[in-house]
Design brief:
six-stranded parallel sheet; globular; 333 residues; Rossmann fold; 39% helix; single chain; NAD(P)-bd_dom_sf; seven-stranded mixed sheet; EC 1.1.1.18; inositol 2-dehydrogenase (NAD+) activity
């Protein structure tokens, strides 16, 4: 039986998801594209050899088995709600809505409709993150004493994007907050943040920073550092280190690590470094779309429920508040 997936939005990440879904064609998947820019949707559909809908209304009228939402944040909530009302499982990029408050209302609507919604925290499907989680669950690390998380872009996105992104913690570090809570099974209860802006002054002009660090405290008192930057010239760097009483593991420490050893005679890493998050998480994005397909077919549990994604957003909100006030902030739940 063929599973029909609709995809709304053919921007950069939308096209990436479309290509990934097309790669699942041998598994009985058919793709329909829709975008407010119909010409662009037709162009992409012609390149990929898939169907195109004239608009979002036409896509929903086609009654797909699932819908992938890859549009700007302001349209996330309306499209999630539309899919929920139609009884169509949805995958949506983070965040659920433009604010945590608005996201809570969406969660309530999802619950009322008994809807299925998977949020795009792709690190949960990344092999390295999964292996680290399994090592921790098997007791191989003993008890955790330190967690270190890094998200470092090679270059900043446009200032226009940053003006509406909600800040570095909400845009980038929210992935780290989600990963830490998912890996450990514990909530972050407090954050204390600092930031700097030594790059493009226009970033500060829109109220953001280009580099920031947060000290996060988990429920049992374990501490984690979460750092992010827009200016990692060596390449795109996402790593997560779990240090325990019996061992240490580090995600992302491979031959594409965006750094080099200063030790004499050490040739690691062999390189080249990843340039973008698309490269760094290419395998994770593939697993993410396959997971959504299996979720639509009722073959697996939801790997990233919206409630957990919203909880990570609450942590990001607290980090942003701490950055602005200079004080530790308890996460409000």
């Amino acid at each position: 039986m063929t599973t029909v997936l609709g995809l709304i939005g053919v921007g950069r990440i939308g096209v990436m998801h479309a290509r990934t879904i097309q790669a699942l064609a041998d598994d009985g998947v058919e793709l329909i594209l829709a975008d407010v820019d119909v010409a662009r949707a037709r162009q992409v559909s012609a390149e990929l050899g898939c169907r195109v809908a004239e608009d979002v209304d036409a896509l929903f009228a086609a009654a797909p088995d699932g819908v992938v939402i890859a549009v700007g944040t302001p349209q996330h909530a309306p499209l999630i709600l539309r899919a929920a009302q139609a009884g169509i499982p949805a995958f949506c990029e983070k965040p659920v809505a433009e604010s945590t408050e608005a996201s809570v209302a969406v969660l309530e609507a999802i619950a009322r409709h008994g809807a299925t919604v998977q949020i795009g925290h792709q690190r949960r499907l990344d092999p390295g993150h999964l292996a680290a989680r399994q090592a921790l669950q098997r007791g191989e690390l003993g008890w955790l004493h330190t967690i270190r998380a890094i998200t470092a872009d090679m270059a900043p996105p446009s200032v226009e994007f940053l003006a509406t992104s909600g800040g570095l913690f909400r845009d980038c570090s929210v992935h780290d907050f989600d990963s830490i809570q998912w890996l450990t099974g514990q909530r972050i209860v407090e954050v204390y943040a600092r930031g700097s802006n030594n790059g493009d002054p226009a970033i500060g002009g829109v109220g953001d920073v280009d580099t920031a660090v947060a000290l996060a405290t988990l429920e049992d008192g374990t501490v984690a550092t979460v750092s992010a930057t827009r200016y990692n010239g060596g390449g795109h760097d996402v790593r997560l280190e779990l240090q325990g009483s019996a061992g240490t593991v580090q995600v992302g420490l491979d031959d594409s690590y965006a750094g080099r050893s200063a030790e004499l005679g050490v040739d690691f890493p062999a390189g080249p470094a990843h340039q973008t998050f698309h490269e760094r998480f290419a395998e994770a994005y593939h697993h993410e779309m396959r997971a959504f397909l299996e979720l639509v077919r009722g073959q697996r549990e939801n790997p990233c429920p919206p409630g957990e994604a919203v909880d990570a957003s609450r942590v990001a909100d607290a980090a942003q508040e701490s950055l602005e006030t200079g004080r530790p902030v308890r996460v409000r739940r």
